[in-house]
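Hey team,

Filing this mostly as a record. A colleague (T.K.) asked me to run one chain through the structure pipeline before their review meeting, and I want the input and output archived in the tracker in case anyone asks later how it was produced. No errors, nothing strange. Just documentation.

Input sequence:
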Amino acid sequence: MTRSPYVTDFIKTWVENTPDVKTDFIYQNIDQHEDCDVDTYMGVLMDPIDYPETRRQELPSRRQREQTSNLYIRQFASEIAQRDPNTQSKRKTEKQAQTTPVTIETEADPINEEPLNSFQVQVPCHLRPATESDVEAIAAIYNHEIAEGYKVMDTRPIKQDDFYNIYSQCMTENMPFIVAVAGWHGTTEKSHQEIIGFSLITAVGLGIAGSYDNLSRIGGKLFVIVKPGYRRKGIGTALIDILITNCTGWYISKGGYQFVNSTHSWISAEFGNSPRKWWYLEMEAMIRSGESEEATRKGEEFQWIYNFLEDKFDLRLKHYDEKCFYEPRQMNWLDKLTFRRTCRTVGQ
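Output structure:
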């Protein structure tokens, strides 16, 4: 390979102008020459330079990173609560409520006091994992919605035995099932507890023979329904909140409700504690169709459900199915909205 004349001239000039230096450490008469640095331009030894000691840092394991992340979130939430001037007052109120009989508020008897937390339930109630003894009341709430509403897919009443099967599958497959009970915990006898709402998570899809052991098991479908007379009082918010908290690793709970658990330890208020390790949660909502999709989107019903799920829970609208169902009793077409929230990322 022939050198460029520019390169040849540069090398010649550099050699001619480079001073005649000696790198022999004996000539320089320097002790401990092995500790010296080298002047790369002049080619001579320099005085030793002190460098700070360095230590190899061990990288944390994936489990350590998850534990640290969850601990930070809990500490952060605790610090926020401690800084809230209403926290002490709220705790005092809850403690008094546990020993003082309360009257359940209804739509005809509205609450006048401002809630301490904007997400606080507006009627005395508490949440807990569902039990078999709750199935009859759960079936009644669901079947009432079939008969009077349009928020569920079924058009015929569901048998109580079918809800026993749903409950059994949820417990077997580690899928949370929560109920809302009227009254603060400890203020009513077990035999007089009224179920006023419920929420659960099932698999997004089943195998062809109904198996839960399939590729869709990492996706959960969130379902929530509140008894008429108790709606728009924060109970639905609380039911969704406890499920997302249990199934998501970086979600800060809204709080504002009592959660009591003495039956199923894996259903908890801990961040991402669900043993199924969900990848995402979906939630479907039915709304009345307008003249067009554009008109429906501008309507009050769409705006309310859209803002409620996106702003409060980061459930993003993924699918809009226009006029996909027909409700014969009120002769209305229904649109189906599908919202989705990511629970964890790759590597978690």
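Quick notes for T.K.: Residues 124 and 222 are 24 Å apart (CA to CA). The domain at 71-104+116-278 is CATH 3.40.630 (Aminopeptidase).
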